[in-house]
Amino acid sequence: MKVFECCRWNRTPPYRASVMAMVWVTWATQVYSNALPANVQFQGFASQGIVYSRVNRFFTDAVDKAGLDFTEVGINGSMLPHPSMRIAAQILARRAGETDDGHIRLDYGLLDFRLRSVDRYDLGIRVGRLKNPLGLYNETRDMAFTRPCVLLPQSIYFDRVRDIALSGDGLHVYSNHRWAHNNIYVQLGAILPRVGGTTTESALLMGNRPGKLQRELTYLGRIIYEYNGGRVRVAYSDFLVNTGYREGSGGSNGDGDIRFNPKILSLQFNAETFSMTAEYARRNFKFHALENYLPFDEVTGESFYLQSTFRPTAAVELMLRYDVVHQDGDDKNGKQFQALTGIPGYFRYAKDWTLGGRWLSSQNWLISLEQHWVEGTAWLPPQDNPNINAIKKNWGMTLFTVTYRFF
């Protein structure tokens, strides 16, 4: 077998151009960073992954072969034109199988106005393209160094709806209250969600439909309580997403509306050598006038994960996680769904055991490896698996990434 048949790389020109341009800008920014003013900072990262997916496909176009179609390159910068004002932005190029095509996009870009800041209290407003404050990891999920694993638990941080969950355009109000060993951080926002592309449409409407999803005013909020510098963290997140489906001229199925409301409870305990994390979510979907695409007009899913992390040394981290998602809490095994649609019930749930490790070989280099054993396909990307009849109930994958950062 030839080497290039074992490890495939998507060689489409737009993807190659995006990645090469981002790598070049990352290198140039690092070389000339010393010439920047003191109030300007730049950071960047580049990550290349190898995915070996068995039985089903995840972030790769092949089964039982290693694929190189998982790449993340980003550059972010910030400037402090005034002590109470910060400007920050990040551009990103990300390739993840067929779910993300590697084009360069604005990941976030914001103006941060600190309205009040005293010893125990901060109040501010952010405007622009803003990261959505959901759970413990959503705001930092872009960079390998700031997430605990290669792939975040899909029960909470679905890559199938990554765009709509990751960020939106609008306004956030935030406040921070500190006393003794305690800290409470509150964020409230009103945004227009990012709903473009077929990935979100496929996840919400069970397929790539002829029309388009529309951006509508969406609300979100999160409150985090921390004790003793983050030794204990408790958070509650609420995300009320409104979007419309417009079929356009010539369609016969009509327009409709979708309301999506995930609520997330997060708990974390951090000690010197180990951490325990658990998150639970309930996700209510309401669909109006979309019966031609969906067999239900309302469904409430639920999901959770339990994760333990052990740090035997400052440079090594080991992780074990059990991750569960049910698309319908009243039909956890999918039997009712299968009776209505003929689609196997295991499309409606997933149970994932994950074992992983990370090695911070230096301040700039991170090597990560993890193994997944999965029953069910609730979060399997349909773009990577267009033949529904070939999708199997039990599957697994190995993910390996090498990441470089500068700061």
Summarize the structure.
The protein is mostly beta strands and 407 residues long.
Primary descriptors:
disordered N terminus; Porin; mainly beta; globular; 16-stranded antiparallel beta barrel; 11% helix; 407 residues; 5 helices
Task: Report the mean per-residue pLDDT as an integer.
Answer: 87
What topology, given as strand order, has the largest sheet? 2-3-4-5-6-7-8-10-11-12-13-14-15-16-17-18
Order of helical and strand elements: HEHEEEEEHEEHEEEEEEEHEEE
CATH topology: Porin
Strand content: over 45%
Going by CATH, the homologous superfamily would be Porin
Structural class per helix/strand content? mainly beta
Shape: globular
CATH structural class: Mainly Beta
**In CATH terms, what is the architecture?**
Beta Barrel
Distance between the termini: 41 Å
| Number of contiguous helices | 5
Q: From the alpha carbons, calculate the radius of gyration and give it in angstroms.
A: 21 Å
Q: Estimate the helix proportion, in percent.
A: 10-25%
Number of domains: 1
Question: What can you tell me about this protein's structure?
Answer:
This protein has a single domain, classed as Porin. Helix content is about 10%, strand content about 55%. The protein has a 16-stranded antiparallel barrel with strand order 2-3-4-5-6-7-8-10-11-12-13-14-15-16-17-18. It starts with a helix and ends with a strand. The N terminus is likely disordered.
Chain-wise SSE layout:
Blueprint: H1 3-6, E1 7-8, H2 13-31, E2 40-54, E3 66-82, E4 85-96, E5 100-118, E6 121-131, H3 162-166, E7 167-179, E8 182-193, H4 198-205, E9 212-215, E10 218-227, E11 232-246, E12 256-270, E13 274-288, E14 298-310, E15 316-326, H5 335-341, E16 349-360, E17 365-376, E18 394-406
Parallel strand pairs: 1-3
Antiparallel strand pairs: 2-3, 2-18, 3-4, 4-5, 5-6, 6-7, 7-8, 8-10, 9-11, 10-11, 11-12, 12-13, 13-14, 14-15, 15-16, 16-17, 17-18
